[in-house]
Amino acid sequence: MSMAKESRNSEELMLADLSHWEIGPYHGALPGQMCLRLTLDGEVVVSGKVETGFLHRGLEKAIEIHPWRAAITYADHLDPEAAVFGELALCLAVEQIAGYQIPARAVAIRAILSELSRVSAHMLHMVKVANSVGAETMIHYVLRDRERVLDLFELLTGARFSLSFLRFGGVRNDVTEGFIERVLEACVLIRARIKEYNDLFTFNRTFLKRTSKVGVITPELAKKTGLTGPNARASGLPMDVRRAFPYLNYPSQDFDVPVGRGEGGAVGDAHDRFLVRLREIGESLGILRHLAESMPAGDFLCPGVELDAATPETVALQIPPGEAYARIESSRGLLSCHVISDGGERPARVQFGVPSVAALAALPEVLKGIWIEDLPVVLSSLDISLAEADR
Amino acid sequence: MDANTILTKLNRAVPGVIFDRGRIAGPEPVPFGWVDGKSLRRLVEALRADQEISADHLENISVAQVGDALMVTYFFRAAHGCFALRATAVPAEPNAWVSFPTVRDLWPMAAPMENYSCELFGIRFVGADGVELEIEASLVLKAKDSEAGSRGFPLRKNFVVGGSSS
Question: Cα separation of A72 and A63, whole Å?
Answer without folding.
Answer: 9
